[in-house]
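User: Hey, quick favor. My workstation is busy. Could you predict this chain's structure for me?
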Amino acid sequence: MKTRRLITMGLGMATVSMMLLAVSVNGNTAEQKEMQAAPKIKRLESRSSEWGKHYQHQYDSYLETKKSDRIDDMLAKDPALVVLWAGYAFSKDYNAPRGHFYMLEDNINTLRTGAPVDAASGPLPTACWTCKSTDVPRLIDKIGENDFYTGKWARHGSEVVNPVGCADCHDNETMKLTLTRAYLNRALDAEGSLKTADVKQEDMRSLVCAQCHVEYYFKKTEWTDKEGKAQAAGVVTLPWAKGFGAEAMEKYYDEINFSDWTHQLSKTPMLKAQHPDYELYKTGIHGLNGVSCADCHMPELQEGGAKYSSHNVSNPLDNLAKTCLTCHEDENILRKTVERKKERRDELAKTATDVIARAHLEAGKAWQSGATEEEMKDILLDIRHAQWRWDLAVAGHGSYFHAPEETLRILASAINKGQDARVKLRVVLAKHNAADFAAPDFSTKEKAQALIELPMQKLIEEKNQFLNSLRQEWIAEGTKKGLYDPATREGIEFKASYSNK
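Assistant: No problem, here it is.
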C-alpha cells in the first residue's frame, strides 16, 4: 500500500512538472513568435520608440547606450592635435565618441558646428548631419539626395531631430538589415570586391555599420532644382575607387587634387580622415576571417525565452563572455594582449602628432622667412601624407584592435613622412637665416589654441547663445511637425568639454 502511494505521488508530481514545462515552452514560443512577426511600422519611421513598441528587448538594450555619457576631451589629452588641425574646426573641440544615443546631441553641442543664427548661417554644410540621425534617410527620400546635401548645416535643424536608431539599419516591413545611405552602395560598386548586387545578409552585419564608420568627403556636385536654378551640393562620397588601403585612398585624393582645408600655419592642402573603422577592419584578422562587426559589438542575448541581438553597441571587452570568449579561451591573456596593442598604438600615435605638429610650425616659419613655393612643394606633400596616414590610423578608435599590424605600419610611415618633411625644412630654414628656429610651447590645450589664435571665449559664448535660442526653436518646430521623439531627450544632461551651459 505504501509503495503504491509513493508511485501515485511520483506520477502526480511528474504530471505537474510536465504541465509547468508545457506552459513555459508555450509561453516562450509565443514570445519568440511575437518577436519574429513583422509588425506594421511606418516607412522610414525615424522615432526609435515606435519600433520599440514591437521590439522591446532590442529597444531597451539600445537605450543602454545612454549610459556611455562621459566627455573625454581628446585635445586636452594631446594638445598637438590643436596644431595639426589649425584652421579646421577640430582644433576648437574634439571629444571621443559617446554612445549612439548621443550622436545627434554631440553633433549639435560641439563647437565644430558653430553657432548659426538662422537656416543659412554657420560654418558647416548639411552633409554633417549624415551619420547622426534616422531623419537623414527620411529627409533624403522626401526632398532628394542633391537637395539634402545643398546649403548649410542649420538648414535642417528642425527636421533632423532623432539620433541614430532603428530606421538607419532595418527595413520597416521585413525587419531585415538594409542600407539607407546610397553613397555606400556606390562606393561598394566602385571598389569592386563586393558588389552591391552580391551582398548577402551576413555581409550586412558589417555593412550597416559601414554606412557611418567609414572615411568620406563631400564631393562638389552641380545640379538644377525644381525652379531651374543652378545649385551646388556637397554629396557624401567614399574614396574607395582605388581600394581600402591608406595609400590607395591617398592616391585617390591626390589625383583629384582634393583637400578638406588649407592648414593655417604650414599652408598645406590637408586631408581629414573621419572614422575609417570599416576600411581598417577589412585588413585585420577578424575581417579577413568573416567575423562581422555585429558579432563583437552586438552579441546575442537571451531573456526568458527570447533571443535577440544586443543594441547596446559598445566595447566588446565590456561583455567578454558574450563576445570575445565565444572564440578565445583565456580572458586574462586576451585582456593583456589588447592592452599591449593599445599601448603600442598610443606610443606611435603620440610620436607622430609631435613630429607632424613641429613640421607645421617649422613650415610656417619657413614661409615667414621668405621660402618659395618651389622650395616648399615637396615638403607640403610630405606633411599632407604624414598627417593623412596618422589620422587614418587613429580616427577609428578601435583601429589598434581591428587591424593592429596595419595600424602600426601606417603610423610608422606617418612618422617617417613627417621626419622627411622636417629634414627638408631645416635646409630651407637655414637658407633663409632661420636655422635656430625652435617650435613654441604647445604642451597644453590652452597654449596650443592660443598659439593658433583661436578666440575660444567668443566661440563658447556664441555657442551658448545658439543653444539657448535657435536650438530651442528647432526642438519646438520638430515637435510641432510630429517628428520629435521625447524619449530621445529623457534624462539627457548637457555635457561639453568647453563649458557648462
